[in-house]
Amino acid sequence: MSRKDKNINKKSIKDESEILWLFPKVNVLLRRKMQKELSQYELLWEQWSILSKIYRNEGVNQKKIAEISIKNEAAVTRTLNYLEGKNLVSREKSEKDKREYLIYLTENGRKIYEESEEVYFKILNDINNIFKKEELKNLKKSLNKLIDNLH
C-alpha cells in the first residue's frame, strides 16, 4: 500500500468515526433535558436512572443494580444512600443470605417514579416524532450492532 493510500484510508476512517463524537453530545443534551424536567422531583438523572432500574427489578441486590446500570458498586451505594435518605428506597436483609440486602421502592418512591416516568416518556415521544418509523428501526439496529461488537 502506498503512502497516499494510507492517508486516504486514515481520512476515510476519521470522517466515518466522527459519528462516535455524536454519542456523547446526544447523551449530554438528553441528560440536560431530562435533568431540567426531573428538578421538580429533586432528583438528578443518575438517581432517577437507578430508581428506574429498581422499579423494573425490585428485590435484587446492590451488585445486580450496578450490573444492570453499568455503574460501579461505589457509585450505586452513594445513590442508594441518597435515595434511602429521601425515603424513595429501602434495603431489606435477604432471607437466603443475611449478608446481602435487597433493594425495594418505598410507597413514596413508587409514586415519585411513576409520576416522573411520564416526563421520561414525553421526552422519548418527542424524540420518536423527530424520526420516521423506518429511520428509528435502522438507528436501533445500527446501535445494537455497535453495542454487540464493543462487548
From TrEMBL:
The HTH marR-type domain, residue ranges: 16-148
PROSITE patterns, per the entry: HTH_MARR_2 (PS50995)
UniProt-listed InterPro entries: HTH_MarR-typ (IPR000835), WH-like_DNA-bd_sf (IPR036388), WH_DNA-bd_sf (IPR036390)
GO molecular function per UniProt: DNA binding; DNA-binding transcription factor activity
Keyword tags: DNA-binding, Transcription, Transcription regulation
Entry protein name: Multidrug resistance operon repressor
Keyword Transmembrane (UniProt): no
SMART domains named in the record: HTH_MARR
Organism: Methanobrevibacter curvatus
